[in-house]
Amino acid sequence: MKKLFLCSVFLFLWAVSCKNSQENSPSIYETNEELSGGENFTTYDLSENAFGAEGKQLTPQQSNDFTTGNSFFRSNWVIAPGSVQTLDGLGALFNANSCGGCHFKDGRAKPPLSSNEPLNGLLFRLSIGNDAQGKPIPEPNYGTQLQDKAILGVNPEAKVSINYQEIAGNYPDGTSYTLRKPIYTFSQNNYGNFSPNMLFSPRIAQQMCGLGLLENIKEGDILALADENDANNDGISGKPNMVWNILTQSFTLGRFGWKANVATLKEQTAGAFHGDIGITSSLFPQEDLTNYQQTLLGNIPNGGTPEIEDINLEKVINYTKMLSVPVRRDAKNNDILKGKQLFMQLNCNACHKPSFVTGNNNAISALNNQVIRPYTDMLLHDLGEDLADNRPDFRANGREWRTPPLWGIGMLEVVNRHTFLLHDGRARNAEEAILWHGGEAEKSKNDFKNLSKNERDLLLKFLNSL
Ligand code: HEC
Ligand code: HEC
Ligand SMILES: [Ca+2]
Ligand SMILES: [Ca+2]
Ligand SMILES: [Ca+2]
Questions:
Q1: Is any atom of ligand 1 closer than 6 Å to the C-beta of 211?
Q2: pTM of the model
Q3: What residues line ligand 2, using a CB cutoff of 6 Å?
């Protein structure tokens, strides 16, 4: 009798738990959830080209721009005068000789792993604080970016070497981990001493997928998520960056860069040509040299005025707008859906906003009305002292970073053969990235640490499916 009773209790519990898991899966799985970049900008190419795929529903002209823009993105610029005039004018100071040199395969760079490795795709923004309007003030001799390379006969600005300090920690369940914090040493300053007030911000080259969609999220939808003074008292206070926009000559919403420090893909692209490769354009007609450097260097080789013509610049800009996002893998898998549930439970989605519908008046009409799942709110958040660069960038203070989109991060290993994350690439994988969260995300991180090993793995499996 007792046995029979126990049996039926077990049967009942089994039936209930089965029913729950069946009910849970469809309700938490959302229709077309695997289409991270919407109908038009999700690619099924899961090869190492997964971040470099062209969107669908483009006009033949747009598709042509994509192809030409792509080749400019990959091509190496050379010292003027070069045999190919469309590709000369490198430097005088620069960080790399192509976009793809840092955004390899349209993906993200990895930081040097030891002190004698060169910087490939890690750069340093410089300033001596913000001016009264809130713009970063350039370092007097070195400007707003440290260029560690230069053409023949010109000295690079300085050399940076990196060392890591190991930090040991434990989960409450006893599992141990180590994190590594980068420490930078600047040497061989070739243009005088740095100002004693110099602030610097290390930034790793970001992944390129889905950028046109991020640009096409309606401004109002982003601003609606802001809660600067945490009026709802949940410990999370998203803040929009407002940045100097050289096209409108006014302060507008910042979207790109690790601190949302640039407003548009146009300015970001022209700015990269200018600051990273030493290529002038109609947006930035003067070389990125301070007055001191200009005087010291005199006449430098010139690849035309400007060095990249508008017609070609436009193609590279359009290229950055038309890159797709890889399709989710196994989005309906039960473990992954459990991981997704944990992601919500830990309030990761307070900042990593799962979805938006893009705006409806982009010139590239394929970008319009797309249901996208970028897992970002495009806002700034205080992530604590440990991640702070202590350098303000427009409205972003020294502890604030833009929530990075999480789409595509599971494909990083395939595309770039590494899994380094965060603004300076210090995290060796997603687990370490979470463990570095602090500030507004301190609670989420602690709740993550308090999960069982199995639950942590489910969450990481979910992230890896993005
Ligand atoms: C020296 C390495 C380097 C080169 C070369 C480079 N980039 Fe970048 N790129 C970066 C870094 C670092 C960031 C982040 C910048 C920041 O946070 O301010 C970035 C950010 C971007 C972004 C914004 C991505 C986002 O998610 O917000 C775009 C777009 C971009 N780069 C395009 C280009 C283009 C186009 C070129 C070539 C003209 C180029 N980059 C060349 C390092 C590089
Ligand atoms: C308060 C807002 C906030 C919350 C909550 C939050 N994050 Fe983040 N997350 C950020 C910001 C901002 C960064 C970038 C920090 C940096 O680069 O230094 C980031 C970075 C990341 C990265 C690395 C992304 C990349 O491109 O390098 C991962 C992975 C990540 N978060 C996952 C999570 C998970 C999982 C949770 C929940 C446990 C979570 N985050 C909670 C704001 C948040
Ligand atoms: Ca030049
Ligand atoms: Ca400089
Ligand atoms: Ca809040």
A1: yes
A2: 0.95
A3: 236, 258, 343, 346-348, 350-352, 381, 383, 387, 401, 403-404, 406, 409, 421-423, 430, 433-434, 437, 440-441, 444, 448, 463
Angstrom distance (rounded) from CA 108 to CA 215: 19
Residue 423 to residue 204: CA distance in whole angstroms: 6
What is the mean pLDDT, run by run of 10 residues, along the chain of 466 residues? 48 44 62 98 98 98 98 98 94 98 98 93 98 97 98 97 97 97 97 98 98 98 97 95 98 98 98 98 98 96 96 98 98 97 98 98 98 98 98 98 98 98 98 98 98 98 98
The number of distinct structural domains making up the chain is 1
From the CA of 140, which ligand is nearest? Answer: 4
What does each C-alpha distance from 421 to 62, 122, 144 come to in angstroms?
32, 12, 24
The encoded tokens of residue 149 equal 């390379």
Distance 87 CA to ligand 3 centre (A): 10
The one-letter amino acid code at 392 reads: P
Give me the domain span that covers residue 161: 31-464
- Whether ligand 1 lies within 6 angstroms of the CB of 142 is answered as no
User: Does 11 fall in a domain?
Assistant: no
